[in-house]
């Protein structure tokens, strides 16, 4: 049976959701970070001068 994430006009994920499963359907989903949570790190090997990157992605499949 599939898992539905984000169905409906008011569907949100604030923070994180960890889901392991098969046949996951993602539709009409808003993803926002929680203010005050630091999610950045300096990567000196990213590009010629380095860059700030996110430690975690908003959504990974």
- Helices and strands, in order, run as EEEEEE
First-to-last CA distance: 18 Å
Principal-axis shape equals: elongated
How many distinct helices? Answer: 0
**Residues in helix, %:** under 10%
Into how many domains do the coordinates divide?
A: 1
Strand content: 25-35%
How would you classify the helix and strand content by structural class? Answer: mainly beta
Give the strand order of the largest sheet, numbering strands 1, 2, ... along the chain: 1-3
- Would you count the extended β strands for me? 6
Q: Spans of 5+ residues with little confidence (pLDDT < 50)?
A: none
Q: Largest sheet at a glance?
A: 2 strands, parallel
Mean pLDDT reading: 73
Q: What is the CA-atom radius of gyration, in angstroms?
A: 15 Å
Organism: Xanthomonas hortorum pv. gardneri
Protein name: Pectate lyase domain-containing protein
InterPro entries: Pectin_lyas_fold (IPR012334), Pectin_lyase_fold/virulence (IPR011050)
